[in-house]
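Q: Hi! First time asking for a complex rather than a single chain. Here are the components, and I think there are two in total. Is that enough to go on?
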Amino acid sequence: MPASDSETLRGAAPGPAAGPRTVSETDAVAAGGARPSAAAPGTPAGARDLGPWERLILNLRAARARAYVRVVATGRELSWLPFEVGLPILAAAAYVFIYEALGAPAEYTGFVLLGGAMTAYWMNVLWNMASQFYWEKQSGLLETYFLAPASRVSLLFGMAMGGIFMSSIRAAATLAAGSLIFGITYHVVSWPATMAAFVLTLSALYCLGMLFASVFLMYGREAWHMASALQEPVYLASGFYFPVRALGFWAAMGASVIPLTLGLDAMRQLVFGMADMGFLPVAWELAGLAGLTVVYFGLALRALSKMEHLAKKAGRLTLKWQ
Amino acid sequence: MSLAIDVQNVSRVFESKGKEPFYALRDANLQVEPGELFGLLGPNGAGKSTLIKILSTLLLPTSGTARVAGFDVVHEADRVRRSINMVSGGEHSGYGILTVRESLWLFAQFHGIPSREALRRIDETLEIVGLAEHAHARINKLSTGMRQKMNFVRGLLNDPAVLFLDEPTLGLDVETARILRDYLKQWIKEKPGRTVLLTTHYMAEADELCDRLAIIDGGRILTVDTPAGLKRTMQDEVVLKTEISPVLAGADEDVLGRFRQLPGVLGVIADRPQNGTQLLTWRLIDDGVIGTVVNELQAADVRIIRLEKNEPTLEDVFMRMVGRRLTDAGK
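A: Yes, that's all I need. Here is the structure of the assembled complex.
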């Protein structure tokens, strides 16, 4: 945004004849547009500049509150139990029987169940992270979010934390029930490495969800259809129900942009002790997941800032009737 | 002393491909003092909500400057957000699975209010608006009125210096609207400097609540004054209401056009017919024109069922400024 727009904002009032020109919030500040202000009497103490510690507390409170909704929903509305535990087991069962009929190694049953359990996270990222700002715009809540001083990142972080809690309950229930039904045995190579793989997978995955949240808000219903279209292909590309190396090296490498591809593969190697069936060495996969976390988090921050600016410029934070 | 709201030449243009640019606001200027309860009156699409969205940092102005609580809405959006809150009529109340108390706590956290303090304020305010017994009810079980009371409480939780109320009593029953209006009057008096910018479709509400009013139409602020001051501008005029039967037939506009040409008639507006009768509201230069009106109605072959001379109301002021009733305008 050229400096002239900042100048427009600072005083000259061209009016309608000057044509439509929208001010850039960030660029105007960068150009030295911000001026010291005297708060009006009655201005709450909160309107003074916040120190880094106060800002952190504010954002942690916001994140905790946003996470709370999902934590409460998990215990208060139990209708998810039959659908989100039963259905993944049913989907996995089909693959289990195929593998048994073909005489595949017994570990494949565990592979399939682990993949089935991890679908909870992918569904959560698609429908409860990526689409969430879009839903909240539709319901009119987004406006209330953007009116508050808490950062948007803290709200997304809260959504992610709540979503991880919610999905972990589902995934654990699926894993426990499936393990009992199919009689799966685990040979954990390293608990710390397994935990690291799990945490890094979720970090990268939910950072991708944060990135999608901005994109989906900007592109609205089209993006929502995109989420629908992404669901099944990702099950395939990330090897939810088979070892991803079966796709071939380059296809699996391409699929690794979805963190679940590397994460599932690493966890399968670590939990079932079958490194020879892995796609890449676990250490490489963990490094890859760490890299994806950094990249997706950086992109999410940029997208969020860009999205907010564009939405305020184009008036897309609310629907026309709101 | 800083103004609570200071709008200088703010314009906002919406553009979409293949369509003419839409000017939602044109060179708007508005100054609101701390402690004022200020009303914005205008039909749908007049620019009221656009102005509120700009002032609440949800929308960027195309040109001009606006300051709220002393802070620039573009350059100091973060500080503005810590000084304001907003309640809109018919807005979504939150997540249906949460209780009223939980939902209000959630929004208080977004403003960084410590939990204990937030819950104290929530309980206190729920008691005042008569929602305390529903504090532990889930939001999806609440009636529209209860939800709006809850939204109202949400808007006050962070003790905003400037509160934006966008049609806050829209669709509410009379009793609920009265409770909210009463509390609003009490709230603004409790602490010096608290300011409210209110948009409403209800003239009586504006007349009762507002210290000053702006009438806005077509993105332009047409006038700003106190309710009494606005009514005084019509002091020299006579407002006459005539209920007639049968209703004006066919070419209503032709008949009304003829009425408007009568000497001494400043304007006439016809309400929609009801039960075979129709109300015509006349603005006349003085009492002497009443006879002309009666003769003209008789000549138009209609019977006068009721004839009433009124003191000017805000509705009459609005009609004079905008040319339509508030309820008809924007249609």
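A: The longest helix of chain A spans residues 191-237. Let me know if you'd like any chain examined more closely.
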